[in-house]
Predict the 3D structure of the following.
Amino acid sequence: MAATRLLDRGAERFPDALLFDDETLRMTYRQARAFTVRLANALAEAGGAKGDHFLLLGANDPQLYLALMGCWRAGMVSLGINAKDAIEDQVAMTKTRGVAWIFYHSDFAENAARIRAAVPGVKGAICVNAFHGDDPRMEEFTAGHREDKGGVLLGPDDLLALSNSGGTTGTPKSVAVSVRAFRTMIASFMTEMTYTEPPVYLAAAPLTHAAGGLSYPMLPLGGRFVLLPKPEPELIMQTIERERVTTVFLPPTLIYMMLAHPNVRRYDYSSLRYLVYAASPMTPEKIEEAMDVFGPVIAQTYGQAEAPMICTYMDPSDYQAALETANTKVFSSCGRATVYTDIAIMNEAGELLPDGEIGELVVRGDIVMTGYQDNDDATAESRRFGWHHTGDVGYRDEDGFYYLVDRTRDMIISGGFNVYPSEIERVILRHQAVQDCAVVGVPDEKWGEAVKAVLELRPGAAVEEAEIIALCKSELGGMKSPKSVEIWSELPKSPVGKILKRKVRERFWKGKSRDIG
């Protein structure tokens, strides 16, 4: 019960504190613990067993969070599937992994039914907020069961979750996350992010991903959760002011949308202590703008599904010190290694590189996954030379700050030279008309791959192609600058807000091999 122990500690220390308090549910920590114990006992009586896979379908919702905790208390394994994924993808992933229990909000009843019909071995489907057909409502499903004790005790090497890796760039792999890795993630968060009073946590991004990861350390602190079903920029800003939010996780794309909103400076953000971002870098200019708008509260974590969320950490104090000393180079860093994780820079021969030299970021420690589920070859490949290989290219400076240059698979080879898109994207994002951008390599007879920038502009903004190219040439020189620029109404993004470069590239490489040149 590694995950639910966090809830139990909150219930012991803050029994009457509100975990949820909105129009859908008002519940204290004491009540939440009792409910999840009842759910674990109800599942056991209905044939649930340790190791059963379970799936949550729905937007951010208190009832689904309780279902997560109850299933974990029963020793079950969560499947990290975003409810906004295409139903075909959801069916394919659950077929591959198998699923025994489906918990869903009534808005997602059709998806639940299609998965249940397509995937053999489903033991039960439970609607968290209503009766739906023959499926029970979760409240009634748990009624009459013991709430004082129950559940399954998990060991450190037991499987806790299966999450996705590779979804933005290729076929997803199932990442097996153990209790040990989960505990290390929580310990890292609680070491780096400290509080003197119970936090108020806003979950605007999907709880099935990074926003969920940051929620768990709030539980033993007696934190109050505010859940938004949709990550709408002005609603987030309104909620921070109204609920006196202290902590929120947002992907950079959503922060950019908020900064571009005409009402961004109308709201009071003085309650914020941590505005955490991850998933992709922010430009130094955007970070400085965010600090000006939201206050000295910007924090960053770096990790991935295989080493969840917080291998490095950049504290608000790090950004503030960099600003005060005009050392804004540090704004490009993803932070220093956390206490419980080893990080190094490695070359292709497996040699660890000194500060300042560029290579692949490699990670070692208890935070690393058990492996890729049913994929021994991929697991072995990821563990060459005794370290987990992240696929990210970067370097460390003499002060211990790590800098990401790019993903190895996003690198463009143009005229025999290696070009890192993120370096170009950082320059383009400085332009006041640009809200977001993706730089990719496109087929070119002369260069093999030519650098192309695809832009998403701020509402009402305009910019000429020549202006963007000239900006890049002035900063980076001709070889790294885009040969062409396109403006799209919206860049393709994953449900958690990451730009899908694979989708951008597909438009230009259809029917062609990327081995050209």
About this structure: Residues 29-45 form the longest helix (17 residues). Residues 27-154 form a domain with the Rossmann fold fold (CATH 3.40.50.980).
